[in-house]
Amino acid sequence: MSVNQAGNTVSGRLFILSGPSGVGKDTILARAERLVPDLRRIVTVVTRPRRDSERPDVDYHFWSRDEFERGCQRGAFLESAEYVGNLYGTPRDGVVEAFRAKCDALLKIDVRGFRQVTREHAGAVSVFLLPPSIDVLERHLRTARPGDGREDIERRLAAARTELSAASEYTYRIVNEEGNPDFAAFRLARIISDERARSAPRLVTLRT
Fold this sequence. Notes:
The protein is an alpha/beta fold. It is about 40% helix and about 25% strand. A 5-stranded parallel sheet has the order 4-9-3-10-11, with helices on both faces. Strands 6-5-8-7 form a 4-stranded mixed sheet. It starts with a strand and ends with a strand.
């Protein structure tokens, strides 16, 4: 929960969740949100086409590449990165609004975004979601997106291996054991609760 608002700045707890494509981040996050009050997931801006199952401005904000690049020029993003040919960014205003509402903010971003945020905001608390094995991750990637070609799958696997090598940079790590997503969600919720209980809170301060 946000604990400080003064002048033209606002402060609060900022959580980051990362992990390779196919590890189950959306499932774990959705379950953890039901366990943790006053937690607001910041909706990411993307330039890729919307999938049939995705809800605009709920799952993602869908922008054109031109809109995204104009947003970068005016400082609209807390972080931004390109992943397999598409642009992704965290809207700064979303985090500011969460802090003003006295909520903790949670970002679901990749390793490059994590490094951007923590380089500027050392108080961010980061969690990396790991698969039980690379073989399990590969199976999930191949079954979750049956329409993807072999080249797309191989590109995602290569990106996953690079991301997995960065797990040690994160504050916490959670293994999403196959068939037991509730345990990983409980671990994420417990991390947030433990951080809220710290006598010396880790906070991020943003200009409004």
